[in-house]
Amino acid sequence: MVTLSSPSPSLSFIEGGTCKSSHVSRVSFSGPGESSETNSILRDVHISERLLEDFTELARENTEKDLETCGTLAAFLEKGIFYVTTLIIPKQVSTSNSCQAMNEVDVFSIQNERELYPVGWIHTHPSQGCFMSSVDLHTHYSYQVMVPEAFGIVVAPTDSSKSYGIFKLTDPGGMEVLRSCSETGFHPHKEPEDGNPVYEHCSNVYKNSNLRFEIFDLR
């Protein structure tokens, strides 16, 4: 199933060919996990808040059954900015605290056909808080090692303090911790030697209300 953002059927571009500042706002969070690094070398990423809302709705059936749902976020790069225009929800096997994508070749095919970058992923915590588990961190490492700007979105509908978060591994600290970790399943990670946390909120991701997108639900 392919879902197009409304009102236009046009895909993968910014309305009018430009990104007006009135349509763009930084995604900001407060409290523990705030970005501890400068992002001068990271390119900005724009994503539609409606994409998050649509994903949450598509995941609702699983959420009500206490099952996680996951998807891949793909973007095109224009003038040094990543624009997330595609959400791909693959076939998957889920539990209350895990989600394993299946037939990932289908995801790669959609990305390659559109010449998109895998800039991140999104998944639900149907009955848990908004945080990155040790398993999530290993999943995310596979994205960020390819694209430094890669981010992970956690949607936590039952977390009254924060319904979603946009995270990345700290670099170099968190990246080195995950690079050297060979454990599987849920397990603790050591603290990075540079004193920063293993992961943090992204400070280079912006909500863009003018960004159109498409959703491929392959389940």
UniProtKB/TrEMBL annotation:
<keyword id="KW-0833">Ubl conjugation pathway</keyword>
<dbReference type="Pfam" id="PF01398">
    <property type="entry name" value="JAB"/>
</dbReference>
<keyword id="KW-0482">Metalloprotease</keyword>
<feature type="domain" description="MPN">
    <location>
        <begin position="45"/>
        <end position="173"/>
    </location>
</feature>
<keyword id="KW-0378">Hydrolase</keyword>
<keyword id="KW-0479">Metal-binding</keyword>
<dbReference type="InterPro" id="IPR000555">
    <property type="entry name" value="JAMM/MPN+_dom"/>
</dbReference>
<keyword id="KW-0645">Protease</keyword>
<protein>
    <submittedName>
        <fullName>AMSH-like ubiquitin thioesterase 2</fullName>
    </submittedName>
</protein>
<dbReference type="InterPro" id="IPR037518">
    <property type="entry name" value="MPN"/>
</dbReference>
<keyword id="KW-0862">Zinc</keyword>
<comment type="similarity">
    <text>Belongs to the peptidase M67C family.</text>
</comment>
<dbReference type="InterPro" id="IPR044098">
    <property type="entry name" value="STAMBP/STALP-like_MPN"/>
</dbReference>
